C-alpha cells in the first residue's frame, strides 16, 4: 500500500485508483478499488449524463431545434405507443408523473403532439404525435445516432455494445429504487 508521502501533489495521492499502475509510486492498483470519488459508479454515471446532455444540446442547436432529451424520449415513446395517456407516457420514459404534464404542454405548444379524448374513457386524454412530430423524429434520427456514438467515444464497437448491455442490466436491477421507475406494460404498469 502506498503512503501519501510518496506523492508530490494532492492529485497524485489518488493516481493509484485511476490507472493500472500508480503514476506517482509505480504500485499496482488494488483490484475492485472504489475508494475515490473518481472511481464511484454514481459519480461516473452523473458525469457521463452531463457529457451526453451537452452533446445532445449541441446537436439540437445545430439542427435549429429547441428539444430536450426528455422531450425527445417522449416523442420516441409516442411513436412506438401512440394513444397512451400522460401517466403511461411517464412510465414509458421513466419520468416523474408530476412533471410529465409540463413536458407534454411544451411539446403540444411546439406542435409536435396533440391530446385527444380516449375512445374507451371519455374522461381520459390520449397523446398522439402530429405530422410535425413524426417529421421531427425522422429528421433527428441521424443526429440521435451521432449523439450516441459521441457519448460512447473511446470505446470500440464491442465495448460500446457490452457497456450498453451492462447499463441496461444495472438499470433494470435498480428500477424500483428510482423515484420514477420505468413501466413498459399496459398503462405504464409492468
Automatic annotation (TrEMBL):
InterPro entries: HTH_MarR-typ, MarR/SlyA-like, Tscrpt_reg_MarR-type_CS, WH-like_DNA-bd_sf, WH_DNA-bd_sf. Residues 41-172 form the HTH marR-type domain. The keyword Ribosomal protein does not apply. GO terms for biological process: response to stress. Signal peptide: none annotated. The keyword DNA-binding applies. Keywords: DNA-binding, Transcription, Transcription regulation. GO terms for molecular function: DNA binding; DNA-binding transcription factor activity. It comes from the Bacteria. This is Transcriptional regulator, MarR family. It comes from Paracoccus denitrificans (strain Pd 1222).
